[in-house]
């Protein structure tokens, strides 16, 4: 298929673009490089550096079989302080993309959604039927886009799938996680091992968990990419399917830090800090729906494997 990947110079977008190319698809990456990296665009992909809202209509006029939409702002704290950036950059831009899709008859869309649409979980593991009550503008913006996609599928026959990620980590070859502002636990811990930070903060040691630290569901970026390929192939006209993507198992903050110590051989000092407001004790996904509908099953669920891939990328990028 001929596919447009928005945000394909970012972490998840670049890995998914690489997987699409390896599967034989024709890929065009659209990215303004505001947070992405030009060297993350996979070899073999056509690259268009442009603003999505301005370029989508002209690009889709050339005829595409589908769009995989990753381009978005994704910092929770920034969304709280500057919500206008998220309503404009995520919601308005996605509406313009949907309009371009409608005008040019692009048949399918796979959307990069998030577990942040659920907010504080009412049940664990979290299912797609769980209430969606986002606690920040980032999650709210993604939920608003999900609602827009549903309406376009109903009214215009779009075949659409939203994939709600939990904690993505790991790397794929030369494609990995590198953000100017890093907020994710594994790369932060690995920054300590690589000498970029003195220590890692552990936000609370008195949570109702086995070791007192928060538990999160980590999914390897390769498993995530595999789900996107299945979603593209299985999207049904006039239907907007929503699937959670996680490993279905959780690891505590202490377990992640210990895995990083094991992989890197670095002591990685950890400093206890106060709990962060709004943090739930446990976030684990139920991915039963994705398994049943897409035939998807994560294969790299061991935390040491995930950390080892992320560390290899970190070392290789530091040496380049």
Question: How is this structure best described in words?
Answer:
- With 320 residues, this protein is an alpha/beta fold.
- It has helices at 11-22, 52-60, 76-81, 83-104, 137-156, 185-193, 221-234, 253-264, 288-294, 303-319, and strands at 2-6, 26-31, 46-49, 66-69, 108-114, 159-165, 167-169, 200-203, 215-216, 218-220, 240-245, 251-252, 270-273, 282-283.
- It has a 7-stranded parallel β-sheet with strand order 3-2-1-4-5-6-11, sandwiched between helices. The chain has a 3-stranded mixed β-sheet with strand order 12-9-14.
- The chain is globular and about 55 Å long.
- 49% of the residues are buried.
SSE layout and pairing:
Layout: E1 2-6, H1 11-22, E2 26-31, E3 46-49, H2 52-60, E4 66-69, H3 76-81, H4 83-104, E5 108-114, H5 137-156, E6 159-165, E7 167-169, H6 185-193, E8 200-203, E9 215-216, E10 218-220, H7 221-234, E11 240-245, E12 251-252, H8 253-264, E13 270-273, E14 282-283, H9 288-294, H10 303-319
Parallel strand pairs: 1-2, 1-4, 2-3, 4-5, 5-6, 6-11, 7-10, 8-13, 9-14
Antiparallel strand pairs: 9-12
Search tags:
single chain, 320 residues, alpha/beta, seven-stranded parallel sheet, three-stranded mixed sheet, 10 helices, 40% helix, globular
Mean pLDDT: 95
Q: Could you give the count of β-strands?
A: 14
Q: Which structural category fits the helices and strands?
A: alpha/beta
Order of helices and strands: EHEEHEHHEHEEHEEEHEEHEEHH
Number of helical segments with 4 or more residues: 10
C-alpha Rg (nearest Å) = 19 Å
The gross shape turns out to be: globular
